[in-house]
């Protein structure tokens, strides 16, 4: 089922998500619905809080070499913890919760993350470049933060101005 994606400035997006403790059918259904929603909205990552569920779960599905988002490449990450960060990389980020706005964000280039899968099994994964950026972006959501908080004062002022302008245009 395709879920509603919360968008800025919805206050729920600033809520810190709680740890998942029940690895049951309801969690599996949420993850499946998140996948359908992410694909329908042309996203590559989605955190549960973005669909109004304040639990520490996120999904990522990057396109493969053929530029296809294959479901077999889907990564489900529950209760993530970054164990190691190295380097710096700048990527232009966007967000389903901040539609239509893209800006360069600096994040760690390499990370090691520990997490659980939908069955509760613990895994450790090294990630770099776009995958590392996506994991950090989605983990920010779990901590109640949006990427626009990481773009610097001047770029944030530009965003606020564009956002207010788009609200005025929508109300016409």
UniProtKB/TrEMBL annotation:
The keyword Transferase does not apply. Binds 1 Fe(2+) ion. Its EC number is 3.5.1.88. Its cofactor is Fe(2+). GO terms for biological process: translation. SUPFAM superfamilies: Peptide deformylase. GO terms for molecular function: metal ion binding; peptide deformylase activity. InterPro entries: Peptide_deformylase, Peptide_deformylase_sf. It catalyses: N-terminal N-formyl-L-methionyl-[peptide] + H2O = N-terminal L-methionyl-[peptide] + formate. Belongs to the polypeptide deformylase family. This is Peptide deformylase. It comes from Campylobacter gracilis RM3268.
């Amino acid at each position: 089922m395709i879920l509603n994606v919360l968008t800025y400035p919805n206050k729920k997006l600033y809520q810190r998500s709680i740890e998942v403790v029940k690895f049951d059918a309801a969690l599996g259904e949420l993850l499946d619905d998140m996948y359908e929603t992410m694909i329908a909205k042309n996203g590559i990552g989605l955190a549960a809080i973005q669909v109004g569920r304040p639990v520490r779960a996120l999904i990522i599905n990057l396109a493969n070499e053929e530029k296809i988002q294959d479901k077999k490449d889907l990564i489900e990450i529950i209760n993530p913890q970054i164990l190691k960060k190295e380097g710096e990389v700048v990527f232009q980020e966007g967000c389903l919760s901040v539609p239509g706005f893209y800006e360069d964000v600096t994040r760690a280039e390499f990370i090691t993350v520990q997490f659980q899968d939908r069955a509760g099994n613990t895994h450790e994964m090294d990630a770099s470049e776009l995958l590392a950026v996506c994991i950090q972006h989605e983990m920010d959501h779990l901590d109640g933060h949006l990427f626009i908080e990481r773009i610097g004062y001047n770029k944030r002022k530009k965003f606020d101005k564009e956002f207010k302008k788009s609200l005025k245009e929508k109300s016409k």
